[in-house]
Amino acid sequence: MSRKVLLIEDEPNIAEAIRFLLIREGWQVETHAEGSDAIEVIQGANPDLVILDVMLPGKSGMEILRNLRELEGMQHLPVLMLTARGQSRDREMAENAGVSRFMTKPFSNAEVLTAVRDLHAQATRS
Amino acid sequence: MATLNVLILVCLGYVVLLFGVAFAADRMAAAGRGAWLRSPLIYTLSLSIYCTAWTFYGAVGNAARSGLEFVTIYLGPTLVMLSWWWGLRKLVRVGRTQRVTSIADLISSRYGKSNTLAICVTILAVLGGTPYIALQLQSITLSFSIFAEADPSGLYREGSSVFWVAAGLAVFAILFGTRNLDANERHHGVVTAIALESVVKLFALLAVGVFVVWGVAGGIGPMMDRVDASEIGQWNVDAGRWTTFIFLSAAAFICLPRMFQVMVVENADEGHLRTAAWAFPLYLLLMSLFVVPIAVVGLDLMPEGSNPDLFVLTVPLSQGNDWLAMLSFIGGFSSATSMVIVTAMALSTMVSNHLVMPIWLSTQGGAGSVSGDVRNVVLMARRVSIAVIMALGYYYYRLSGGGAALASIGLVAFAGISQILPALVGGLFWRGATRTGALVGLTVGFVLWIYTLLLPGMGGAIMPDSVLQNGPFGWGWLRPRALFGIEGMDPMVHSVMWSLALNTAAFCAASLLSFPSPLERLQGAQFVNVFDHSVSPAGWTGSVAQSEDLMIMTQRILGSGPAQEFFQHEAEAQGGRTSLPEPTPGFLERLERELSGSVGAATAHAMIGQIVGGSSVSVEDLLAVADESAELLEYSSQLEAKSAELSRTARQLREANTKLTQISEQKDGFLSQVSHELRTPMTSIRAFSEIMRDTDGLSAEEQTRYAAIIHDEALRLTRLLDDLLDLSVLESGRVSLNMGGDTLGSILDRAVSSALAGSHPKLRIRRARPSERIPLNTDLDRLGQVFINLISNAQKYCDADEPVLTISAHDVGGQVVIDFTDNGSGIPPEAQSMVFEKFARVGGDKAGGAGLGLAICREIMQRLGGEISYLPGQGGAAFRVRLPLAHRQAAQ
């Protein structure tokens, strides 16, 4: 069974680290570094999980998430959001936008893996 | 017979009677009784001070010498009264509304309250009046001497009697002329006394006339035969002289200070002029009725060489009718005394108001103008003035010797005083008349009168015959009696024609050429349009119908509650028959006071005037209203300014608040940015260090690669912290500059090698070295930092296939300008304004900078006194650095 994660992150080193972790967990990892066309990429890739950075060139992660949730069939797609800004306001905004899990950078690898596992488990259970 | 003693007794008795009448009249007026004192009859009789001793005695003498010409002296005033009483009415109205005290005051008031003019008129009046007073004294002396000749006792001495007469008249004038200070309070005593004297002199002359016609000639028929036989009866009219004399007497009637005094100042009611308009000519007619018969009979009866001026006395005396002669004497005495008293009063008012008081006030430094002792000073000035004027008259009489014919002195005085006429009439009817015009006209007329009439008449001692014959300095055209070569004219006609013609011409010309002051314009309008807007002197009066209008107006101003309360209260106080009070003067005054509390006194006056007094809003009222409005405007504009200030302050506060909010937001944004910039590399470091720690079996390549990433990110963190610290130091202004001297070229050399070190130098730098030989004196490291930043930016962001950075330098007007232009796609216009902001990374952050470089550059350039800006439209990204060549200025 192929589990596919779409990682949208403009920092190449962070993307590489997460990619390394998830591949070892058996995920198929696709990466994307642009915000502007992220929705189309998500729709095209049809992933089981999306990891979304907030500060992206072209379009912010918050906006992408909001737009995504408005699309049909995308309401329940697990989205793990990462941000480096770390303000409580961002968390609220993300929750309002319909985030599945919100994490502040820097995070431990275990945290990321746990979150991904949880989210995937929830998604497959429901 | 002791005629002289009796005469003196009668005289003294008569004087005592006059004192008594004047005293009683003053008492009655003060007590508010005696309405007849202000009757048109008294007014008309008082006007007859026009008929002085000159008229009383001189008319007969004139008739005896020149025939019917004496009539002109009566015709002038008669014509004025009959055909110009509306002009007199205007004069009286102006005098009353302006509270004029004398003719000098009137002229001065009309022409912008000019004291110079007042002084001119005063001097003219004193000069013209003094000989005239002397003339009266002379007439008294002459008439005394007639009786003295017939008196055997020889008690009479001419000189002393004149002195005592003059002194007595002065005392009378002082007693009754200077009792009240305000010239507006009329001198009822004096006016009543001179009215009595008018009756006496008319009665005396008529008595002599009746005696001559019926007692001597034997009835009207024989009298007419005698007249026909005489030369006097022949109409021998010299048109020039007649016209001149009629005009002169008319002018004098208007301009003489004493006439002005009784006609304008003492006028109690304008309506009196209506009566006077027919009654005064009638009086003159009666006065002139028997002049010709007396003259004709006198010439027949009296011996050759006897003075015809005294026929009125000598004819009865020669017929043995001593009592009639004495009555005639009293008539002449009356004429003389009334004229002297009023003249002295009028002149003293002018002298004290326009000569003495200004001088006294100027010596007081203006402090006396409000203190209480001014009243006494004014009264004292008037009294002294009267004494001085009488003394002048007395000495003139003594010096002149009393030889000249009475009539000629009178005419000379008339001609002098007539010089006021153009300024007076012009002032009443021509708004364009100006102060300068009046001054120039008066001066011209005055000088010509002195030169052509007064001086030539004073004999050879004053004006040598040579001047009369050949003109001054032999200039023939300036001969006093043949000015500009006009010869063969009667001297009087000649003088009057020239002086008045040139006076009028000068007055008009100077008025047209000069520009009136605002006060002159205002006074001019008030004088010329006096009937349009002078308030009825009686104060407010109104009808009940107006009460309603007043009520409506009051409600508007005070509000309906207080207005109704006020009106109710007033109505109750009046008896309460209706809810509205009668508009009595008292009520209107209280209402005006009430309103003035809200809208200002002038506006209140004008508003009530509009309702009650018809169109009685004067220019002054309007000006006062305008003043009040101006004050209100001023006040409201002050309020406006205050409110504008307040709203400005509020706006500033709002702006400051916005700025603070912005700064706070910027601070939050900055912190958030810094957090992001710190967390990002830390995330990578943490992630890879955990991978390396936790992951078994990492290949050596992977280990090396991840360690390199950790290392790079650590460096990135360090750089970021360095930049942040640098920026904070620069922004706080605590940076110390390390000044040094070098050429631009070598600074650039170091920057290029530093920026390109360690990276593959795919960026080509194009420079024009000769233009870089510009010596600079600045912080070389900081400037170099800017250059390195710009070069490495080009290296990082230039997206051309073969990136080229062109560095060009110019020296422009004391500044060195260095442009860094690459051949990439440049910065999009919408981002250009942002590039110097902190963390403003444009486009993708592929080079991993924190976005503080250009912000730091901007700060540095600011510290160095220059600037850095983005140059749009250069193809690629282009930055311009400007730096002042400060060292040059220092070297110069």
Q: What's the total helix number of chain B? A: 35
Strand content of chain B: under 5%
User: What is the residue-mean pLDDT of chain B, rounded to a whole number?
Assistant: 78
Shape of chain A: globular
Quaternary organisation: heterodimer
- Radius of gyration of chain A over all CA atoms, rounded: 13 Å
CATH homology superfamily name of the largest domain in chain B = Sodium/glucose cotransporter
At the first level of CATH, the class of the largest domain in chain B is Mainly Alpha
Plain-language structure description:
- The complex is a heterodimer of chains A (126) and B (892).
- With 126 residues, chain A is of the alpha/beta class.
- Chain A is built from 5 helices and 5 strands.
- Chain A has helices at residues 12-24, 38-45, 61-70, 88-97, 109-125, and strands at 3-8, 27-32, 49-53, 79-83, 101-104.
- A 5-stranded parallel sheet of chain A has the order 2-1-3-4-5, with helices on both faces.
- The longest helix of chain A has 17 residues, at 109-125.
- Chain B has 892 residues and is mostly helical.
- Chain B has 4 domains: 3-407, Sodium/glucose cotransporter, CATH 1.20.1730; 535-617; 642-712, Helix Hairpins, CATH 1.10.287; 738-891, Heat Shock Protein 90 (2-Layer Sandwich).
- A 5-stranded mixed sheet of chain B has the order 2-4-5-7-6, covered by helices on one side.
- In chain B, a hairpin with a 7-residue loop joins strand 6 and strand 7 (878-884).
- The chains are: A alpha/beta (126), B mainly alpha (892).
- Chains A and B meet through helix 1 of A and helix 29 and helix 30 of B.
- Chain B: One of its GO terms (cellular component) is membrane.
- Chain B: Its EC number is 2.7.13.3.
- Chain B: Residues 636-666 form a coiled coil.
Q: What descriptive keywords fit this protein?
A:
heterodimer, A: alpha/beta, Rossmann fold, 46% helix, globular, B: 892 residues, Sodium/glucose cotransporter, Helix Hairpins, 5-stranded mixed sheet, 69% helix, elongated, two-component regulatory system (chain B), coiled coil (chain B), membrane (chain B), EC 2.7.13.3 (chain B)
